[in-house]
Amino acid sequence: MDPALCAAVERCWSPLWLSTVRAPEVGAAFDDLGVEGRARYFATRVAPLGAVPAPVVVATFFNFSPAAVATAIPQVWESVMPEQLLAAQRTGVGQALARLLADVDPAAVNEALALLRVAAVAASARPEGRALFSGYAALAWPDETLVALWHAHYLLREFRGDGHIAVLVAAGLSGLEALILHIAVMPVLGPIFRPSRKWTDDEWDAAVDRLRSAGWLTADAEPTLTDAGRRFRADLEHRTDELNVPAYASIGTAGCERLLELGVPIRDALLAGRVGLDTLLPPPEPGR
Prior knowledge:
The protein is an all-alpha fold. It is 67% helix and 0% strand. It is built from 14 helices and no strands. The longest helix has 26 residues, at 145-170. The chain is globular and about 55 Å long.
Protein backbone atom coordinates (compact mmCIF):
# COMPACT_ATOMS: atom_id res chain seq x y z
CA MET A 1 0.00 0.00 0.00
CA ASP A 2 1.02 3.63 -0.39
CA PRO A 3 3.25 4.72 2.53
CA ALA A 4 2.03 8.30 2.06
CA LEU A 5 -1.50 7.17 2.94
CA CYS A 6 -0.22 5.82 6.26
CA ALA A 7 1.40 9.19 6.93
CA ALA A 8 -1.84 10.99 6.08
CA VAL A 9 -3.70 8.93 8.68
CA GLU A 10 -1.03 9.79 11.28
CA ARG A 11 -1.37 13.51 10.58
CA CYS A 12 -5.17 13.41 10.62
CA TRP A 13 -5.26 11.75 14.03
CA SER A 14 -2.36 13.63 15.65
CA PRO A 15 -4.68 16.02 17.56
CA LEU A 16 -5.86 13.03 19.59
CA TRP A 17 -2.49 12.87 21.27
CA LEU A 18 -1.65 16.57 21.07
CA SER A 19 -4.89 17.66 22.66
CA THR A 20 -4.75 15.29 25.60
CA VAL A 21 -1.12 16.02 26.40
CA ARG A 22 -2.03 19.47 27.70
CA ALA A 23 -5.67 19.01 28.60
CA PRO A 24 -6.43 20.43 32.06
CA GLU A 25 -7.85 17.10 33.19
CA VAL A 26 -4.55 15.37 32.43
CA GLY A 27 -2.65 18.13 34.22
CA ALA A 28 -4.87 17.80 37.27
CA ALA A 29 -4.29 14.05 37.43
CA PHE A 30 -0.53 14.62 37.49
CA ASP A 31 -0.91 17.46 39.98
CA ASP A 32 -2.50 14.99 42.36
CA LEU A 33 0.74 13.00 42.23
CA GLY A 34 2.91 16.08 42.67
CA VAL A 35 4.58 15.56 39.27
CA GLU A 36 5.23 18.81 37.42
CA GLY A 37 6.71 20.23 34.23
CA ARG A 38 9.01 18.22 32.02
CA ALA A 39 9.03 15.33 34.48
CA ARG A 40 5.48 14.49 33.39
CA TYR A 41 6.45 14.18 29.76
CA PHE A 42 9.67 12.22 30.21
CA ALA A 43 8.47 9.93 32.97
CA THR A 44 5.06 9.09 31.52
CA ARG A 45 6.30 8.23 28.04
CA VAL A 46 9.01 5.98 29.41
CA ALA A 47 6.99 4.62 32.35
CA PRO A 48 6.11 1.26 30.71
CA LEU A 49 9.87 0.52 30.61
CA GLY A 50 10.11 1.06 34.37
CA ALA A 51 12.03 3.54 36.51
CA VAL A 52 14.83 3.78 33.96
CA PRO A 53 17.92 6.02 34.27
CA ALA A 54 18.49 9.18 32.25
CA PRO A 55 20.61 7.57 29.48
CA VAL A 56 17.66 5.39 28.46
CA VAL A 57 15.47 8.47 28.06
CA VAL A 58 18.17 10.25 26.07
CA ALA A 59 18.46 7.26 23.74
CA THR A 60 14.75 6.70 23.20
CA PHE A 61 13.61 10.31 23.02
CA PHE A 62 16.57 11.15 20.74
CA ASN A 63 16.40 14.93 20.30
CA PHE A 64 16.54 16.12 23.93
CA SER A 65 19.93 16.95 25.39
CA PRO A 66 21.19 14.98 28.39
CA ALA A 67 20.95 18.26 30.33
CA ALA A 68 17.21 18.50 29.60
CA VAL A 69 16.58 14.94 30.71
CA ALA A 70 18.65 15.43 33.86
CA THR A 71 16.17 18.03 35.11
CA ALA A 72 13.64 15.25 35.67
CA ILE A 73 15.22 11.80 35.47
CA PRO A 74 15.94 9.95 37.74
CA GLN A 75 14.64 12.32 40.44
CA VAL A 76 11.00 11.75 39.55
CA TRP A 77 11.29 8.09 40.54
CA GLU A 78 12.02 9.11 44.10
CA SER A 79 8.44 10.32 44.57
CA VAL A 80 6.26 8.37 42.16
CA MET A 81 6.15 4.91 40.62
CA PRO A 82 5.71 4.32 36.87
CA GLU A 83 2.42 2.53 37.49
CA GLN A 84 1.02 5.58 39.26
CA LEU A 85 1.90 7.83 36.33
CA LEU A 86 0.26 5.53 33.82
CA ALA A 87 -2.91 5.30 35.90
CA ALA A 88 -3.05 9.07 36.29
CA GLN A 89 -2.57 9.56 32.57
CA ARG A 90 -5.45 7.25 31.70
CA THR A 91 -7.71 8.92 34.24
CA GLY A 92 -6.96 12.39 32.86
CA VAL A 93 -7.24 11.28 29.24
CA GLY A 94 -10.61 9.66 29.89
CA GLN A 95 -11.98 12.80 31.52
CA ALA A 96 -10.56 15.08 28.82
CA LEU A 97 -11.91 13.06 25.91
CA ALA A 98 -15.30 12.71 27.54
CA ARG A 99 -15.50 16.50 27.49
CA LEU A 100 -13.86 17.16 24.13
CA LEU A 101 -15.70 14.45 22.19
CA ALA A 102 -19.07 14.73 23.93
CA ASP A 103 -20.84 15.74 20.71
CA VAL A 104 -19.13 13.24 18.39
CA ASP A 105 -21.23 10.32 17.14
CA PRO A 106 -20.37 7.30 19.34
CA ALA A 107 -20.77 5.02 16.32
CA ALA A 108 -17.96 6.90 14.56
CA VAL A 109 -15.76 6.57 17.64
CA ASN A 110 -16.41 2.83 17.87
CA GLU A 111 -15.70 2.29 14.17
CA ALA A 112 -12.49 4.30 14.36
CA LEU A 113 -11.38 2.41 17.45
CA ALA A 114 -11.95 -0.91 15.71
CA LEU A 115 -9.75 0.11 12.78
CA LEU A 116 -7.01 1.72 14.87
CA ARG A 117 -6.91 -1.26 17.19
CA VAL A 118 -6.42 -3.70 14.31
CA ALA A 119 -3.52 -1.57 13.07
CA ALA A 120 -2.00 -1.27 16.55
CA VAL A 121 -2.21 -5.02 17.14
CA ALA A 122 -0.59 -5.63 13.76
CA ALA A 123 2.21 -3.26 14.72
CA SER A 124 2.79 -5.35 17.84
CA ALA A 125 3.96 -8.18 15.63
CA ARG A 126 6.89 -6.00 14.51
CA PRO A 127 8.42 -4.74 17.79
CA GLU A 128 12.07 -5.03 16.79
CA GLY A 129 14.02 -1.87 17.64
CA ARG A 130 10.93 -0.06 18.91
CA ALA A 131 11.46 0.33 22.65
CA LEU A 132 8.89 3.01 23.53
CA PHE A 133 6.26 1.37 21.37
CA SER A 134 6.89 -2.05 22.86
CA GLY A 135 6.57 -0.68 26.38
CA TYR A 136 3.10 0.69 25.72
CA ALA A 137 2.14 -2.35 23.64
CA ALA A 138 2.78 -4.53 26.71
CA LEU A 139 0.14 -2.66 28.72
CA ALA A 140 -3.40 -4.00 29.03
CA TRP A 141 -5.92 -2.37 26.72
CA PRO A 142 -8.20 0.14 28.49
CA ASP A 143 -11.81 -0.89 29.01
CA GLU A 144 -13.19 2.61 28.36
CA THR A 145 -13.89 3.25 24.68
CA LEU A 146 -12.42 6.76 24.52
CA VAL A 147 -9.27 5.80 26.41
CA ALA A 148 -8.87 2.75 24.19
CA LEU A 149 -9.15 5.04 21.15
CA TRP A 150 -6.37 7.21 22.59
CA HIS A 151 -4.27 4.16 23.46
CA ALA A 152 -4.58 2.73 19.93
CA HIS A 153 -3.44 6.00 18.40
CA TYR A 154 -0.66 6.37 20.97
CA LEU A 155 0.69 2.93 20.05
CA LEU A 156 0.72 3.82 16.36
CA ARG A 157 2.39 7.16 17.11
CA GLU A 158 5.19 5.49 19.06
CA PHE A 159 5.51 2.80 16.39
CA ARG A 160 6.16 5.45 13.78
CA GLY A 161 8.38 7.46 16.09
CA ASP A 162 10.66 4.56 16.96
CA GLY A 163 10.93 3.72 13.27
CA HIS A 164 11.77 7.34 12.52
CA ILE A 165 14.65 7.27 15.00
CA ALA A 166 15.98 4.12 13.33
CA VAL A 167 15.97 5.92 9.98
CA LEU A 168 17.71 8.99 11.43
CA VAL A 169 20.40 6.91 13.10
CA ALA A 170 20.96 4.91 9.92
CA ALA A 171 21.40 8.22 8.06
CA GLY A 172 24.16 9.19 10.50
CA LEU A 173 22.26 12.03 12.16
CA SER A 174 22.51 12.92 15.82
CA GLY A 175 19.40 13.89 17.73
CA LEU A 176 20.40 17.54 17.65
CA GLU A 177 21.07 17.50 13.91
CA ALA A 178 17.69 15.90 13.25
CA LEU A 179 16.04 18.55 15.42
CA ILE A 180 17.71 21.39 13.53
CA LEU A 181 16.62 19.95 10.18
CA HIS A 182 13.08 19.71 11.51
CA ILE A 183 13.11 23.35 12.62
CA ALA A 184 14.49 24.35 9.23
CA VAL A 185 11.27 22.98 7.72
CA MET A 186 9.08 24.90 10.18
CA PRO A 187 11.03 27.84 11.66
CA VAL A 188 8.04 28.78 13.82
CA LEU A 189 8.94 25.78 15.99
CA GLY A 190 12.42 27.10 16.79
CA PRO A 191 11.37 29.28 19.75
CA ILE A 192 9.52 26.27 21.19
CA PHE A 193 11.91 23.42 20.59
CA ARG A 194 15.28 25.10 21.00
CA PRO A 195 14.88 26.18 24.63
CA SER A 196 12.98 23.06 25.66
CA ARG A 197 15.69 20.69 24.35
CA LYS A 198 18.41 22.60 26.27
CA TRP A 199 21.33 22.15 23.90
CA THR A 200 24.06 24.72 24.53
CA ASP A 201 24.74 27.43 21.98
CA ASP A 202 28.10 25.86 21.19
CA GLU A 203 26.51 22.46 20.60
CA TRP A 204 23.80 24.03 18.46
CA ASP A 205 26.23 26.08 16.35
CA ALA A 206 28.53 23.09 15.81
CA ALA A 207 25.61 20.98 14.60
CA VAL A 208 24.47 23.74 12.23
CA ASP A 209 28.00 23.91 10.82
CA ARG A 210 28.03 20.16 10.21
CA LEU A 211 24.71 20.31 8.39
CA ARG A 212 25.91 23.22 6.29
CA SER A 213 29.07 21.32 5.42
CA ALA A 214 26.90 18.41 4.29
CA GLY A 215 25.08 20.81 1.97
CA TRP A 216 21.70 20.51 3.69
CA LEU A 217 21.38 23.96 5.28
CA THR A 218 21.73 27.45 3.84
CA ALA A 219 24.26 29.95 5.21
CA ASP A 220 21.48 32.28 6.44
CA ALA A 221 21.49 33.47 10.03
CA GLU A 222 18.29 31.45 10.44
CA PRO A 223 19.17 28.53 8.16
CA THR A 224 16.62 26.85 5.94
CA LEU A 225 16.93 23.71 3.85
CA THR A 226 18.84 23.76 0.60
CA ASP A 227 17.46 21.83 -2.36
CA ALA A 228 19.70 18.95 -1.35
CA GLY A 229 18.47 19.27 2.21
CA ARG A 230 14.85 19.10 1.12
CA ARG A 231 15.55 15.96 -0.90
CA PHE A 232 17.44 14.44 2.02
CA ARG A 233 14.68 15.11 4.53
CA ALA A 234 11.96 13.98 2.13
CA ASP A 235 13.82 10.70 1.76
CA LEU A 236 14.01 10.32 5.55
CA GLU A 237 10.26 10.82 5.84
CA HIS A 238 9.55 8.41 2.98
CA ARG A 239 11.73 5.72 4.53
CA THR A 240 9.94 6.26 7.85
CA ASP A 241 6.56 5.93 6.15
CA GLU A 242 7.72 2.68 4.55
CA LEU A 243 8.57 1.28 7.98
CA ASN A 244 5.06 2.26 9.09
CA VAL A 245 3.31 0.19 6.43
CA PRO A 246 3.16 -3.12 8.36
CA ALA A 247 0.76 -1.58 10.87
CA TYR A 248 -1.65 -0.03 8.38
CA ALA A 249 -1.45 -2.82 5.82
CA SER A 250 -3.60 -4.78 8.25
CA ILE A 251 -6.58 -2.55 7.44
CA GLY A 252 -5.59 -1.86 3.84
CA THR A 253 -6.19 1.17 1.69
CA ALA A 254 -9.94 1.12 2.31
CA GLY A 255 -9.44 1.05 6.07
CA CYS A 256 -6.99 3.94 5.97
CA GLU A 257 -9.29 6.01 3.78
CA ARG A 258 -12.14 5.31 6.19
CA LEU A 259 -9.97 6.47 9.10
CA LEU A 260 -9.37 9.73 7.27
CA GLU A 261 -13.14 10.21 6.97
CA LEU A 262 -13.85 9.26 10.58
CA GLY A 263 -11.01 11.40 11.82
CA VAL A 264 -12.40 14.69 10.54
CA PRO A 265 -15.19 15.26 13.11
CA ILE A 266 -13.00 13.91 15.90
CA ARG A 267 -10.09 16.14 14.89
CA ASP A 268 -12.36 19.16 14.60
CA ALA A 269 -13.84 18.55 18.04
CA LEU A 270 -10.38 18.22 19.58
CA LEU A 271 -9.08 21.36 17.92
CA ALA A 272 -12.18 23.27 19.01
CA GLY A 273 -11.17 22.51 22.59
CA ARG A 274 -7.98 24.58 22.13
CA VAL A 275 -6.11 22.84 24.93
CA GLY A 276 -2.53 23.75 24.11
CA LEU A 277 -0.85 22.44 20.99
CA ASP A 278 -3.97 22.44 18.86
CA THR A 279 -2.72 25.16 16.53
CA LEU A 280 0.67 23.53 15.94
CA LEU A 281 0.40 20.44 13.77
CA PRO A 282 3.88 20.15 12.26
CA PRO A 283 5.33 17.25 10.33
CA PRO A 284 6.39 14.39 12.59
CA GLU A 285 9.10 15.56 14.97
CA PRO A 286 12.44 13.72 15.06
CA GLY A 287 12.17 11.38 17.99
CA ARG A 288 9.05 13.26 19.18
